[in-house]
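Course assignment 3, question 2. Fill in each field.
Student: A.L.
Task: Predict the tertiary structure for the chain below.
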Amino acid sequence: VQEIERAYVSLRAFMNTLIDMRRGEMASGAMDRSDILSLLIQSNESEGEDKLAMSDDELVSNYTLFCVGC
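Answer field:
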């Protein structure tokens, strides 16, 4: 069980870093990606501070569901 918790914490940290990197790329215009994570982030950013915007945890959860579901 502890190994699963460590793996979860590591995956979460990796995904949060990846989300931050993608947001930085989008803000600078350096990369124009069309992968599912980038599309989720772009869609979420377009919601602004609206109550419909997802938290980073929700972004990670939705991304994980897309990956597992495919």
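Instructor remarks: Helices lie at 2-28, 36-46, 56-69. The radius of gyration is 13 Å.
Grade: pending
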